[in-house]
Write a structure and sequence with these properties.
Chains A, B: It is an enzyme of class 4 (lyase). Chains A, B: It catalyses: 5-amino-1-(5-phospho-beta-D-ribosyl)imidazole + S-adenosyl-L-methionine = 4-amino-2-methyl-5-(phosphooxymethyl)pyrimidine + CO + 5'-deoxyadenosine + formate + L-methionine + 3 H(+). Chains A, B: One of its GO terms (molecular function) is phosphomethylpyrimidine synthase activity. Chains A, B: Pathway: Cofactor biosynthesis; thiamine diphosphate biosynthesis. The structure is a homodimer of 629-residue chains. With 629 residues, chain A is α/β, with parallel strands linked by helices. The longest helix of chain A is centred in the C-terminal third of the chain and has 22 residues. In chain A, α9 packs parallel to α10, α17 crosses α18 and α20 packs antiparallel against α21. Chain A contains 24 helices and 15 strands. The first copy, chain A, has a domain of 51 residues. The interface between A and B is large, with 136 and 136 residues.
Chain lengths: 629, 629
Amino acid sequence: MAKTAHFLAESARVDEAAVQALPGSRKVYVEGSRPDIRVPFREISLSPTKTSGADEQNPPLLVYDTSGPYTAPDTDIDLRKGLPELRRAWIEERDDTEFLDGPTSEYGQRRANDPMLAPLRFDLTRTPRRAKPGKNVTQLHYARQGIITPEMEFIAIRENQRRQALGTEEVERILGHQHPGEGFGARLPEEITPEFVRQEVAAGRAIIPNNINHPESEPMIIGRNFLVKINGNLGNSAVTSSIEEEVDKMTWGIRWGADTIMDLSTGQNIHETREWIIRNAPVPIGTVPIYQALEKVNGVAEDLTWEVFRDTLIEQAEQGVDYFTIHAGVLLRYVPLTAKRVTGIVSRGGSIMAKWCLFHHRESFLYTHFEEICEICKQYDVAFSLGDGLRPGSVADANDEAQMAELKTLGELTKIAWKHDVQVMIEGPGHVPMHLVKENMDKQLEYCDEAPFYTLGPLVTDIAPGYDHITSGIGAAMIGWYGCAMLCYVTPKEHLGLPNKDDVKTGIITYKIAAHAADLAKGHPAAQRRDNALSKARFEFRWEDQFNLGLDPDTAREYHDETLPKDSAKVAHFCSMCGPKFCSMKISQEVRDYAKDKGLDGDQEAVMKGMEEQAEKFRQQGAELYQEV
Amino acid sequence: MAKTAHFLAESARVDEAAVQALPGSRKVYVEGSRPDIRVPFREISLSPTKTSGADEQNPPLLVYDTSGPYTAPDTDIDLRKGLPELRRAWIEERDDTEFLDGPTSEYGQRRANDPMLAPLRFDLTRTPRRAKPGKNVTQLHYARQGIITPEMEFIAIRENQRRQALGTEEVERILGHQHPGEGFGARLPEEITPEFVRQEVAAGRAIIPNNINHPESEPMIIGRNFLVKINGNLGNSAVTSSIEEEVDKMTWGIRWGADTIMDLSTGQNIHETREWIIRNAPVPIGTVPIYQALEKVNGVAEDLTWEVFRDTLIEQAEQGVDYFTIHAGVLLRYVPLTAKRVTGIVSRGGSIMAKWCLFHHRESFLYTHFEEICEICKQYDVAFSLGDGLRPGSVADANDEAQMAELKTLGELTKIAWKHDVQVMIEGPGHVPMHLVKENMDKQLEYCDEAPFYTLGPLVTDIAPGYDHITSGIGAAMIGWYGCAMLCYVTPKEHLGLPNKDDVKTGIITYKIAAHAADLAKGHPAAQRRDNALSKARFEFRWEDQFNLGLDPDTAREYHDETLPKDSAKVAHFCSMCGPKFCSMKISQEVRDYAKDKGLDGDQEAVMKGMEEQAEKFRQQGAELYQEV
């Protein structure tokens, strides 16, 4: 409480350092078919390539940008006011929603009317929105009727990485080169169109999580025929953390590339923490409602009831939560299957439900009331993230009977959700050795009719606590390649403690690596442009460009400066590995210049002849093209 | 020079903190068929599992140990004296070698006789050893004659991870559980015997790098039907670093698990630096002799000659280098194939040879004198690491014509080396997107007749400078699974600067993760025991055991203590993620206890019946088994 009060006293501005644009970058917007479809990108400007003749321009590179208005120029963010309601007009013109007088959940009303909570409460007077009676406001519902929403068009522009200035023919030869991918069933089109987005959503292969009560969010899509997405978790716990820290972690996480954020709070003031996060989040927010429901019954799992849970769903849906993790696949008969495991049940939600089922000897209310949950979700467009409550917590337990039994049930629930036009993705493990990762992915596609898969890692070994961002980053990259749509990050503190801001950043960057590696391997159109632009900068010793094209320019620059701190080294045509005396890149440039001069890129015989003829000349040149800086 | 003098003044002791045993561990030796075959292991002792009845003992776990005598109890290491000559008797009893009067290389003699170098020189008066005239002293030569050397027996014991105390039946059920691997052609036996080691070496599928002039080394094997190995690089450069730092990096690297060390020095006093490293290294040392040869001709590649190179090979072979990287596959006609690449030639050795070939318009002396190089290697048992001078430096250039052309030539050279009974492994890239990794591995096996593959990463994307231990760790784990025998580490400073000790450790741990993940996926017998032991400790909240079973106990403990610093938290039956109020592991334990009590592990019907009968009892129990600590 003390910390929160302190936070509110401080005018609720975000940390300046955290919101300025990344180095060498500026926010640009690409306009769609109407002026209010303005899709944000980060434009990285590049310096020209020095040649013996005229400088060769390198076109700026546009990259996907999750950071929202925080990195826009002249932004004056006031966390008390929240972000602008980007999607408000789109929602309203569909004319299928209405404002409520206030929260309709019992708990939401109680919190709103508790004068003790005033100092914690978000400033804005906000009225929740809900579907008009009989209406279904999900993007899946629209998609199935053949409607391309502004959200879908926004996404089509956003996913289209090729939108950017073109360079010279030689630059384009390099930047445009892309290895054909191996999709494992992914069908990536040459051009991602609004109609393609609609089709994928309609087929259930992709979801657009955007609650009508979270109009601040910039639309994004989760599906295996799009860019692989990543999620970052935050949330206070009984042990530590404050609202201030959680909002701070959210803005920090999206700065480095989190596509969605899950608020997993289990401690004090969950309701108010969530309100602060949603109002200030340009990305979808997911939650695990059972966590809060458990708090409401004082942590006693067996005291949970459908009524408490239902009220929690409505409370959160009216705040604007974009997707709910629901562990409805933990069936009573699956629980004993975990008894002989090395690590039993490791999902919090799964263990809560297992305990409830055992205690009452009944199927859980999540399962028995699943259609009613669908009814709630379709009034707000909350997507399902069907939780894997029986996921393995060790490689020993990977792909076992309990896990697969639950996955089949999640597949059955998917069909029920689709009957209601509610969007669904499926959560996956966890801990899986490399050779079992593909089997897990394939079974998910089979059992769940290609609904998007959303996995935590998986960790491919258990022997490296302190490095589980890496053990899991390996599995994440692989399962992304095999078809997983979103990867839930893991930080270095996994299994050990709560992540701080550094850990959050490390987790995000590791997962951006995994997701991008998967995009390359799948052959997402133009994913390789960024690699090629960076490699070209590296080869040409454009150090600043190399830093700025990377996922973390600050760390790259810092590492470089540790060995060669002088500013002049940033334009040096050598690096600290070999030093100025000898450099492979330099020699390679000489080879290239030599070949170019002599036209040595025709057939092999001509090449050899040309080389022979020119060898003497080369000897006479002396060959030191390197210019001391 | 100043730094080196300082080093020598300080009695040349290693840093105490760096050589003590890892927490909870002690060095143990397993004896072979003769008393001087004593194979080192690290024994991690574990605390008992608390149960409602008597404590259940957890047997100690033996793990592979690369750290040599440094972590042995009561070790008094004096770097000036070097390590004991473990293999001396084995070499001598074969009676096929003889001592030389001194270095036979011209350069070695010059350095030995230069009074100016006295302060830099290693203390020990050492006489190099060489094969008697007409003798071949390679392990491959012995293996092909059916001889099982002590080195081979040593290795068989070392690779056998199952040698350890056994626990109770329940503990063994958990520790012994192993997912059958997918070997991609790897043929892992249930038990690794000395005869199996011999067969693999004889077939050329594995190598034992141990120069007769490096008797200090503990034998190890590199081959895809054994544990995946990792290499750590060190070496001074023209820009920075001293002998002291390099020796320090070596002892640091093997502490964390480097199986071999490559000394890539390019700066001052390469000869003396190497001597210090070899005399103190319990692991094989590799070099790239062309680096030093280039220094001898003042960095002018075109001035390199066969004579200078040959003298360098003999100089280094007589110091005890265990494997040579030789870029003999860079043929003149392949050089123009790199001209249109995004990143040209990025291998230092490759670019040196390319420049030489272009300048002289001839095939390199490495290629034309390859049989003479074999003649040298077989007199000392130096193994080849045939360098990939044309490896791709970006994902754009992966698996291209230049790379594959060179790989085929390396295959031809392999056959020549084998004709001389010289051991060979093949170096590989580099930068390769995930979906091309397997193709690269498969081509290597095909072109090089299953000689072991030794790759740098590969990096699966280029967009994360500062995190290339991770981008490459992903590719390393995958190629290890597909059959790569050794993985050359990459540190976070790759492409940016020279690694410091922290970077070396991070690189090593990342690569131990990749190698172990590969061992699991391949199904190396008993590799999963360590995962299972750690997961069991995690499930039972044996925090200290969880830390100590990990690859980096220090970091795990530090991370844990950041959130829950009190000592009592180390025995707490909860962790900081959920706090004491609710804990999934705790509930899971309750489920397990419940199932066990009721005998719920029979068939499904009985289970359901049992559960129903007992549900009321469970409700009455209250179920809070958790004991406050």
